[in-house]
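Work Package 3 (structural annotation) set out to generate three-dimensional models for the target panel prioritized at the project kickoff. During this period the team completed the workflow that converts sequence records into C-alpha cells, so that structures can be stored uniformly alongside our sequence database. As a representative example, we reproduce one entry of 212 residues exactly as it appears in the project archive.
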Amino acid sequence: MEISVSYLNSLYSKEKTILNIEKTTANYIHVDLMDGGFVPQRNFELADVLKLLKNHELPLDIHLMVFDPLIYIDKLAELEPSYITFHLEATKDIVKTIEAIKRHNIKVGLSIKPDTNIMELMPYLSIIDLVLVMSVPPGAGGQSFMPSAVNRVEILKNYRNNNNLTYKIEIDGGINNETLKEVKANIDIAVSGSYICMAKDYQARINLLQEI
C-alpha cells in the first residue's frame, strides 16, 4: 500500500509542509485543488500551484475538485505529475478529459463523491488508471471517515479482479491509523492529510499507517 500525503491542513506553511513531506517515506504529495464552484471552498491560483510545486521531488498525485477540469490539464502537465484525478460529476466530457490527460503521458484518475452511485464509474474503468473513492464529502480537510466507503472499495476490488482490469484504488478522507484498518485490504493508495500534517513528526504518523 502506498501513502499519498495531502498538505491541505497543516501546522506549517504550504512551503514548509511540502519540504517536511519530502523528508519522509511517503510515495506521493497529494495536491487538492478546489475551485469554489464544484466544492464551496477555493484554495488555489494556477500560477501559485505551479510555483509552489515546480521543484517537487516526490511524485505528485493531483486531485481536481473543479468544474471544467479540461481547462487546467495543460498547465498542470508542466509539473509532470504521476496522476491527475478529476470528478465524474464535474463534467459531461469524461472521455475527452481522460484522453487529454493521457496525451501528456500522465496516469488518469476518476473520483466520485460519497453519495454518487458507484455504478456510474463502470463504463470508464477499463480506460483509467485509478479510482479515487471519497470517504468524506469533497471540499474540506479534517472531516470524519464515512463507513459507507468500506463497501465501495470492496466492490471496486472485486470488479477489478473479476474483469482482469488494472486500475488502482485510492481512498481519501478521514484516514488515520484506525480508519485505515477498515479499508486497507481493498486499496492500493491511502491519502492522509490532517492525521500526518497536523502532527509534529510526519514520519512517525506515516510509520503507523504503513505498519497496519
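Residues 2-210 form a domain with the TIM Barrel fold (CATH 3.20.20.70).
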